[in-house]
Amino acid sequence: MLRSRMKKEIDKDALELISSLSHDKNIFYYDIMVDYAHVLNLLKNKIINTNDAKKIIKALLEIEKHGFGDLNGEDVHEAIERKVIEIAGESGKKMHTARSRNDEIATCLRLFARDNILNLMKNIIELRKAIINKAEEYIDTIMPGFTHLQYAQPTKLSHHLIAYHDMLERDFKRCLNAFERINLCPLGCAALASTSFPLDRSYVANLLGFDGVIDNCMDAVSSRDFIFDAVFAATSTMLSLSRIAEEIILWSSEFDFVEVPEEFASVSSIMPQKKNPDTLEIIRGKAGKIIGELTSSLAIYKGLPFAYNRDFQEINDILYESLIWAIKSVKVMKKLFPSLVFKKENLEKKAMKNFSYATEIADELVKKGVPFREAHSIVGKFISNESELKKKLEKFGIILEDLKDAKKIVESRKNLGGTSKEEIIRMIENRKWKIKNDEKILKSTFERINSKIKNLYKEIEEVLCT
Amino acid sequence: MLRSRMKKEIDKDALELISSLSHDKNIFYYDIMVDYAHVLNLLKNKIINTNDAKKIIKALLEIEKHGFGDLNGEDVHEAIERKVIEIAGESGKKMHTARSRNDEIATCLRLFARDNILNLMKNIIELRKAIINKAEEYIDTIMPGFTHLQYAQPTKLSHHLIAYHDMLERDFKRCLNAFERINLCPLGCAALASTSFPLDRSYVANLLGFDGVIDNCMDAVSSRDFIFDAVFAATSTMLSLSRIAEEIILWSSEFDFVEVPEEFASVSSIMPQKKNPDTLEIIRGKAGKIIGELTSSLAIYKGLPFAYNRDFQEINDILYESLIWAIKSVKVMKKLFPSLVFKKENLEKKAMKNFSYATEIADELVKKGVPFREAHSIVGKFISNESELKKKLEKFGIILEDLKDAKKIVESRKNLGGTSKEEIIRMIENRKWKIKNDEKILKSTFERINSKIKNLYKEIEEVLCT
Amino acid sequence: MLRSRMKKEIDKDALELISSLSHDKNIFYYDIMVDYAHVLNLLKNKIINTNDAKKIIKALLEIEKHGFGDLNGEDVHEAIERKVIEIAGESGKKMHTARSRNDEIATCLRLFARDNILNLMKNIIELRKAIINKAEEYIDTIMPGFTHLQYAQPTKLSHHLIAYHDMLERDFKRCLNAFERINLCPLGCAALASTSFPLDRSYVANLLGFDGVIDNCMDAVSSRDFIFDAVFAATSTMLSLSRIAEEIILWSSEFDFVEVPEEFASVSSIMPQKKNPDTLEIIRGKAGKIIGELTSSLAIYKGLPFAYNRDFQEINDILYESLIWAIKSVKVMKKLFPSLVFKKENLEKKAMKNFSYATEIADELVKKGVPFREAHSIVGKFISNESELKKKLEKFGIILEDLKDAKKIVESRKNLGGTSKEEIIRMIENRKWKIKNDEKILKSTFERINSKIKNLYKEIEEVLCT
Amino acid sequence: MLRSRMKKEIDKDALELISSLSHDKNIFYYDIMVDYAHVLNLLKNKIINTNDAKKIIKALLEIEKHGFGDLNGEDVHEAIERKVIEIAGESGKKMHTARSRNDEIATCLRLFARDNILNLMKNIIELRKAIINKAEEYIDTIMPGFTHLQYAQPTKLSHHLIAYHDMLERDFKRCLNAFERINLCPLGCAALASTSFPLDRSYVANLLGFDGVIDNCMDAVSSRDFIFDAVFAATSTMLSLSRIAEEIILWSSEFDFVEVPEEFASVSSIMPQKKNPDTLEIIRGKAGKIIGELTSSLAIYKGLPFAYNRDFQEINDILYESLIWAIKSVKVMKKLFPSLVFKKENLEKKAMKNFSYATEIADELVKKGVPFREAHSIVGKFISNESELKKKLEKFGIILEDLKDAKKIVESRKNLGGTSKEEIIRMIENRKWKIKNDEKILKSTFERINSKIKNLYKEIEEVLCT
């Protein structure tokens, strides 16, 4: 359709290489939405007349209804335009006036990124809730704390779980930061330098639910850094999940702290007794995958001159896949959490394993006047020889057994962010409040966008009814 | 000093492998600052007395004055503590009370990240200014616009340069987003679960210029995602620079649009005539480097269980190197920009090369009633056959020569973000305003932090004077 | 089918997350081939009887004929086994005896990797031929040589193209290195520690066209480094292509050295005159993509304990995608090369641009007794002032114009690997010989494998006929 | 020294950015060696006379003796040349005749890569020996085998350790593959297109211990893929180490299978009882680091046109760092292995944990005529209900207790690569033979190179003595 300048058709293998159709299904509906908005803009600015607009919109509605199905061509934009022309005839040939695929694809990508980053945020909030619920459920459960995967000091499961929440809260904020740079409209910028047809860019931005426009037209079609923001936020989220997954995998293995629910476990094809935490391994694996996807997108982009280069297309699928799988991963984690059963007894039994009370002894010696570094040294020397240690401590009036009380230890940590009951309760209440707050932000964002999109459809209706 | 528990010293090769000393010089002063603040906190909470505090602070002052120089050991924390004990004796042994290297290193890293991300932001602002100045200098210069590195449509150099600015403005915002997650204090969290010694975490956070605390102690020592924020912002900045560098490299090559200033060029050791854009190639290369550094940090972190793991140490140097070189790269680009001389004549001469006015013809046909897709097709068919094209256009009353006026074309693009003079002026004024605004944000941030740090030193003075 | 141990079905979203079915289509035929071979092994070792073997093989033939189509389940192995049981009844339930999905998937992946790395090698050889043909076509064409994208010294197009060949020859060797580590059989290793059923591992390896077995069973099911070999070879190949693509993109832009054939170019949807080198941009973009795919695979694998972990599954699709697209990219490049038309006149005209003869002058001064570093300095000083330079040179009896003969310069470089005609001819002949040699290696490899596979099918026939 | 063409000195900050001096220390001695060889070549071909050669060589000897110390300038090549001129006067100015930094740096990098990849190979062999020794030490020790980190089937420690060896054997081969592409000489190729001075490239290649030349001169200076080979081999090695490290970390934690020797463990600064496997965590961390280093090198290289671009310089340090740290990591692992003490009792006690004998039961049912899939299902259903299971099995004449004998199970796996004593012994003997073979390859390589290097120094002597 576009190749009137050429004498030869594109090579079959080259077409297969450069065609984006296989992953364009991800933006099929967005492309149609962009078409609606653009047509309304053409009409508003009298570049086309109502009759043309009507015919195009009707064709688009038909295509939308029919779905992506049997589209073919170099890409979804061209394929839809061809269909519109098939259906709407001469009027259809006017749809692409004052527009380039360059601003069109940039707009579609931003719509996809926006909706999916919001969806990711929604799921992150739900996972945060599930975690805080679990923390409340096990609010007093004492457990061993680890560093270097070695027994370190006693702590509380609730304290540990709140740390999960806090990682994810930051991921939520990363998504929000990304959203702010994503939800801006490049439509109307044409190939790279705007167009001489009068277009109302703010109008069309509003129709599509954007919070503003990408101002400079060269920037609007040449930049893909909004995708990095999205993929980075998803990557960070996946890394948070990978750490949680790793701990559940370890804890459902030899540590024996938790039972992976059957609905999230798999069986071996040869070993009938196996119950494997496949879901968590896949999440951990997908965290590795997305690291490379972020890498790909950055490596593709490096050193590309302005404006559009076809290399950009290779970044699109990364946007789709990384967000889609991040959402699915968070969703599964969110479903898994409520059914996790922690083994309180094991956790508490092992809270003092491998001399986890050693710091307590050193601190007690400090309170008796021994400089900490010396106290540390003394405890280090005698820790594995209990009778000697006891003797040594008695000289300071310290009874070793008194220090082996995990509950006393964790409750004595009353500083901000510590393990005492008071602090745990404060943190849980605070996180609940933060979750509510983030829900409000998200809700108002959804409502703002939805009301604009509704308006788009209302305006389409109006055109059809004139 | 710490190995009283062990019977054997660490293996020499193992020590070389695990020692962080070679890159700890980057946090030497931060570690001392953290020590000051911690000692003040111990004193405030009566965990040590004034005499001890005085002696430790004096020792620290001496070490600070002496510099990193001949420190040795497993890491800078241990090395400084050892020196403090050498100088301050028994009092020195009290410095590490109620503290772990886990909260100590996390604090040092955040201080480094904070100061350097702010420094990066400062340099980005200056580069943005230099770019906007250049845009003003060449406000009316017409140039060819490219897509796929092929001549596309005429545009303006100022319009193109504003797009550079806008990329970098977003990078500034990424830094700001990172800063907000970085400038929170983990000090006081001890190993992973707080301490039973009473510590005022807000007090110490304030002394160190932080805007708040990392609340949950497990999270505070187990998380390094703030480093990803910093490295990601630096990576995004470097990618923006890489694209600018690529264009200057191309434009100072066959395109012949710009002259790379001699101060930023190198010569060949064999070919005496060469003037090579090495500075820009290195910047482009460093963009490739930092992609891998971000990758490294993510790959190291993936799937690590809580709390501290020594793997974290491998991320530290990535933080240092990526920020240091991003700052240097932006600084050099900022110095290079003012002396860039664009070759107006070449730019304007080539603005219409390779039928860059073709879109204009198609648009003109549209204005005469031809549907765009048809107009596109007609122009495509005849564009390389001027006499035929002229005939074709005459039928529509269009004079081809009238459409070949680049100036007319660029001025006709009056939509938001377009190339018309009015729009360029609006965008330049708007960017100046944004730069000023960002300068204000940065200035108030520096002032806020500096006044807190001043207070830290004032409190140290007061201890010494008691 | 496998979950008799469980009381609950797997969660729907978890299943979607962990199912590999969507990309298992890549190994569908390999899995069936593995089933054939395993059944023959079971029969040979009398673990099943002829009747069972017959029934299973018949079922497999039916499934093979029917294709991947409507398979469903957690993965292709389970799905095929279920179908076999549906068709072959009780006999079908015996197929998975003495086998695990762990050795099964490892075998399928190696078969895929083997066939596709060989296919890649075949295409690389063809591209090398196309390049050497082009070098012969332009054997005497003089062109400018560049460093730092600046004019450096005159060279020959044929010399430049031979360098393309040599990169790709090394990529071929990388593939060969990978192949040697890939084409070894893990089948028979069961879950991780072999099986007590007697199996002839060499027999089954032979049936599947392997060159040997992976000896240690734990290693056989726990290792995926053969995938890194394959993906690394593909990555290296793509990087070679990216450099060739970059040069063609540059050369078909302002440099104007070559015309991209229309069959490999695209048109703009808005700018009717555009002829864009999209195919080459996509290849360059896919080089960026595969860098991240390699990264993903390494990041997933890092630190995984033995034996099988489900994370491995995330690496499978990387193997498929990276090889498939590398093959397609090489294939398109191979088709593009013969139709590339270089613009001899432009190449020769620009061979001496920007004082590319400067080294020649310095060398001539050396021959007159001036130390090179001094000669370099003299030429550097006067190069842009021709009249002064001439005077300076006359003192040494050098006529500047004599040195400006590009042909003389390139022919004077007679050292090994230089640009003289003799050397070019030698290199072309040598490369042709190398290509032939590599073709022989590849041919004998294909024949060896094919004859083994033929034998597999012959043995199947024999079972069916008993 | 080189900037006679320029009127301005290079900007101070730009120089800092582009200078490679800080990491050039890694190739200081190689650069001097290259200078020696080049001077001998100039002399042999009468481009300089004996007197000049003598003076230059003397200057080089002096510089070599003095060491890298106080060199300054843009890079080591220029710095050394400047020193040579300082010492040798006019003669010194002749050293760089018929040479460019382009062929010089390529040669230095290949020398570094060659020596370090061989060093890595030497250490890998020693680690393989240490592992096989350990396997012999624990030849009969039964242990649990895991999949998905869940108890799977009993196996033997020796069998498991041989799998470690086999991974590393492949890494050795990767190094060897890399070596073959590395040890070829680019010297004499000058800037990109050879030189008209007659040079004997084979002679100089021999002097430097290379096994041949990189033939085409453009390829010789434009290619860095030999670095990818080296870094990839190092990365693969580090990934193998990361998996071993991960297992030792796990096994010295809750699994309690092994004791990390004190010489390779660290202590906490706060928790006196801690013995942390820091060495292994650092190795695991460095595996993450090197993934990104490989990524960086690939991302820098992608799409760079011929010939030299300064971006290449950013790859150099990656070569140095990745090989240096891979060598150190393997060395430490090699030292750690002999002192690892496995806890036989724990290993054997847990070999049958969590129904690890379940496969055995299913297999036994198969031997009684139950199709495997049914047997699997039966065992799955009853495995956690022992009394029911026993009853079920009795119907088939199977005594459950007979199947719970781990020793019997592992000895029954007599197939190739299985866990039976016979197979273990065969594999150990085979690995010893392979190690010896690889040692021979390495030894003859070292000898070949050393004898060539000796000859270089002999020829230098001869020049000095004329």
Describe the structure.
Four copies of one chain form a homotetramer. The longest helix of chain A is centred in the C-terminal third of the chain and has 45 residues, at 421-465. Chain A has a two-stranded antiparallel sheet. Chain A is built from 19 helices and four strands. Chain A has 466 residues and is mainly alpha-helical. In chain A, strand 1 (142-147) and strand 2 form a beta hairpin. Chain A is elongated and about 100 Å long. In chain A, helix 3 runs antiparallel to helix 4 and helix 6 packs antiparallel against helix 19 (421-465). In chain A, 65% of the residues are buried. Helices cover 65% and strands 4% of the residues of chain A. At the A-B interface, strand 1, strand 2, helix 7, helix 9 and helix 10 of A face strand 1, strand 2, helix 7, helix 9 and helix 10 of B.
Q: What is the beta-strand fraction of chain A?
A: under 5%
The greatest interface between two protein chains, and residues involved on each side, is: A-B, 123 and 124 residues
State the end-to-end CA separation of chain A: 31 Å
Largest sheet of chain A: 2 strands, antiparallel
For this structure, the quaternary state is homotetramer
Q: Unreliable stretches of chain A, pLDDT < 50, 5 or more residues?
A: none
> Whole-number radius of gyration of chain A?
30 Å
Helix segment count of chain A?
19
In spatial order, strands of the major sheet of chain A run: 1-2
Q: What string, H for helix and E for strand, traces the elements of chain A in order?
A: HHHHHHEEHHHHEHHEHHHHHHH
Which bin fits the share of residues in helices of chain A?
Answer: 55-70%
Question: How much is the average pLDDT of chain A?
Answer: 96
Shape of chain A: elongated
Number of beta-strand segments of chain A: 4
Structural class of chain A: mainly alpha
